[in-house]
Amino acid sequence: MHMTYAAITGWGKCLPPAVLTNADLSTFLDTSDEWIVSRTGMKERRVSHVPAIQLASTAAARALACAGLDASELELIIYGGCSNEELVPNSSSGVQIELGATRAAAMDINTACTSFLYGLSTATAMIKSGVVKNAVVIGVELITRYMDWSNRNVAVLFGDGAAAVVLQASDEESGVLGSVLGCDAEGREALRVRGMGCSYAGLGISYGDTIWDFDGPVIFKRAVKGMSEASAKVLAQCGVTADQVDLAVPHQANLRIIEAVAKYAGIPMEKVMVTVEKYGNMSAATVPVSLVDALEQGRVKPGSLLLMPGFGGGLTFCSLLVRWGSRVTPLGVSGRELPPLTRTALEIVNEYRAEQDPHGRSLPGLMAPTFVEQRIR
Ligand code: UT7
Q1: Is the distance from the beta carbon of residue 155 to the nearest atom of ligand 1 less than 6 Å?
Q2: Is the pLDDT of residue 173 over 50?
């Protein structure tokens, strides 16, 4: 029987240049480099000076150039992430304009940190079923814009960034071979950003004035379970054993979570991509950025078998098994660059803090979770 695959033929990342260090965070939070490194493995993260659509479009343009695919040929854009300039119109339509990809369908997927992997699975299915012949799948976040900078439990963990891959219909057995997707919704209360969405309409809350409900230890345990079980399942489904996996490219929320998942899966840490020390948790962008770093470092070889486990708000979880194709070098390079930086990361964050501090936090709709939860239900 003839089988169509969705080969990954292009890849590109866009990391905003402004670097926020643990020392920067210690200037306004009761935290320390020692705490952050020992609990999370993070040393620095990026703060964007441009909108999320620009990060996404730059990553996508680089991925298209890498694939040698003209934007006019593109049939589908998936914008994976939970950072949006606006909800209507969606963000992928903004990417379409930026790329000049006038023939492309455009959809946003928000499953929080797993958005890129859910998007990769979706686009693969759409190519295999013949709905489209190619797609660009983006993982992008601009979390610094709606971070609660007064909360050390979350403010030290996240960063901004974007990366994208191009998928193209192919006869060669490559691309996503198997996907296990799931959602541990009983844990959905463990990660909520209060302040964004219809439930908060009419309460006088301005965008970015958030309060985060974040139960780190609960998410930690459920993340390890979800990622580990999904990984075991996808390997079994594809008839592959752990020792056949050449490289794991997991979601980067915490070095300790990555180590626990690798141990459970039986994959040694030498075969695990770790970028959390450089970029923190970029939510939907962590897996594609780590994948691009792996390619740039020569850690992905022709025919490599890659395991990609993820988890995020919802609490969504997943694991994808990917067979790399024959090409690990770009066909072309995009000239697209971000505008130059005029402020440091700390200066940008201090501007956000100044906007947040005097107001917002004390608004009744944000302060009383029971009130908001009634509105949500
Ligand atoms: O990608 C999806 C989102 N990511 C996640 O959900 C991450 C999952 N969770 C985690 O990675 C970990 O649970 C954390 C890194 C968030 C926290 O690590 P932990 O080992 O679970 O620490 P903890 O929450 O139990 O907190 C330990 C202590 C607490 O003090 P007490 O109560 O023991 O006195 C916290 O108040 O550390 C304190 N703490 C901090 N101290 C210095 C919390 N944040 C900080 C901080 N600096 N930034």
Answers
A1: no
A2: yes
Specify the pTM.
0.96
> Helix, strand, coil proportions of the chain in percent (round to 5)?
40, 25, 35
Measured over the CA atoms of residue 55, residue 59, residue 60 and residue 64, the dihedral's sign is: positive
Token pair for residue 240? Answer: 């592959």
Sorted by where each starts, the structural domains of the chain and their CATH numbers stand as 5-331+342-376 (3.40.47.10)
CA distance linking residue 150 with residue 356, whole number of Å: 9
Sign of CA dihedral 119, 125, 129, 134: positive
Taking only Cα atoms into account, the Rg of the chain, rounded to an integer number of angstroms, comes to 20
Backbone angles phi, psi at 140, to 5 degrees: -145, 140
Q: Report the separation in Å between the CA atom of 214 and the middle of ligand 1, taken as the mean of its atom positions.
A: 9
- Give pLDDT tens digits for 84-101: 999 999 999 999 999 999
What integer is the mean pLDDT of 140-151? 96
Q: Which residues are catalytic?
A: 113, 251, 281
What value does the mean pLDDT take over residues 196-209? 83
The answer to whether residues 35 and 299 touch, using CB atoms and an 8 Å cutoff, is no
